[in-house]
Amino acid sequence: MTFVRALPFAVLGLLCAPGPAAAASSPKTAAATSVEAPAAIHARDDRGRDVTLAAPARRAVTLAPHATELVYAAGAGAY
Question: What is the spatial distance between Cα 40 and Cα 59, in angstroms, rounded to a whole number?
Fold first, then answer.
């Protein structure tokens, strides 16, 4: 009976395990980059108003701790 209970957890663990990091082993080459002006961001808010940002946002303010954790999980904490 213990095996039957442990089997779903074992399968879940195998499905969630990370695969091999093939991209990490390939050498990175330096690519020539040109400096361009950031593109404007157009969005529509919840009230239907058009909002335009001249460039991508550099900072964000969150009003709740869980929202801060979500922003960091999305990768914004690295900048």
Answer: 16
State pTM to two decimals.
0.35
Q: What is the Cα–Cα distance from 22 to 24, expressed in whole angstroms? A: 5
Label residue 46 by pLDDT band (50, 70, 90). very high
In the block, tokens 């390939």 appear at: 26
Q: Is 79 helix (H, G, I), strand (E, B) or coil?
A: coil
Q: How far apart are CA 39 and CA 6, in angstroms?
A: 52
Q: How far apart are CA 79 and CA 77, in angstroms?
A: 6
| Helix (H) / strand (E) containing 43 | strand 41-44
